[in-house]
Each structure stands twice: as structure tokens, then as C-alpha cells.
Design goal:
alpha/beta; 140 residues; 5-stranded parallel sheet
């Protein structure tokens, strides 16, 4: 199975990994894993003020902080996952990446906000579900 792990470095990423290690049918070396993190875009005015190189270095640095510990964790469990970083609107970018990559399953942590918060602010999980045909497993 081709599995996409969407991570953001939060405690919900840790909960997702804890869930995975207790479910052998998912957390198996026969599955192909890709770890994805998405950075929100820096506003155009800020990008123009500091320059492309500084912004690109910022994206790379922030992505590495998130992906590195997860990649090490997976390697300790015998899983050599591919990694990917993107910049964009988070929910839409995750959904598009999942569909374009033809993943069998997308696994991500859920922040567990209530319905009222989702109505007012929206949620990454809801945006992923709205922008992807890939099955999604939300870990809470």
C-alpha cells in the first residue's frame, strides 16, 4: 500500500505516529511511505522585502525541523520513507499532492476542533477532504 503521512510537527503528529506503531496492518515495511509537510506561503510583500533566497532558506529550514525527527523515527522502525515539502495553502496542497501521487491512503493528525471553530475558521482536515479523492485516516 502507498501511504502518505501528512505532518506538521505538532503533538498531533506524535499521536499519529503512536497510532501507527500499534497497528501492524498499516505500519509495515511492505508499505511505501511518503512524509509530507506543507509550509504556508510568506506574504508577497514580506517576500519582496527580504528576497527570494531568504524566504526559500526559511521554507527549507522550517520543513527540515518538522521532517527530520519523523524520518529518524521511521528509520528506527525499519521504514525508509520518502520525504516531500511543499509551500501553499495547506489543506488544498495536501489534497492535491495525495491525488497527484496516487496514494492509497492519507494519514494525518486531527486537531480535534469543534464544529463551531470549523465553521468560523475552517480546518485543514476538512479542506483536505474537500480537495482530495484519496481515502483519509484522521488520528485524534
Amino acid at each position: 500500500m502507498k501511504i502518505l503521512l501528512s505532518i506538521d510537527g505538532s503533538n498531533y503528529t506524535k499521536k499519529m505516529l503512536a497510532y501507527l506503531v500499534t497497528h501492524d496492518e498499516l505500519f509495515h515495511t511492505n508499505n511505501a511511505f511518503t512524509v509530507l509537510t506543507v509550509q504556508p506561503p510568506v506574504p508577497n510583500r514580506a517576500r519582496a522585502a527580504v528576497g527570494k533566497e531568504i524566504v526559500d532558506n526559511y521554507y527549507a529550514s522550517e520543513s527540515a525541523k518538522i521532517i527530520s525527527p519523523v524520518h529518524k523515527f521511521l528509520m528506527r522502525h525499519g521504514i525508509d520513507a520518502k520525504t516531500a515539502t511543499k509551500v501553499g495553502h495547506i489543506g488544498e496542497t495536501i489534497g492535491k499532492f495525495a491525488d497527484d501521487g496516487k496514494f492509497d491512503l492519507l494519514i494525518m493528525g486531527s486537531h480535534g476542533h469543534g464544529t463551531i471553530v470549523n465553521m468560523v475558521m475552517g480546518s485543514v482536515a476538512i479542506k483536505v477532504l474537500a480537495n482530495s479523492k484519496t481515502p483519509v485516516l484522521l488520528i485524534r
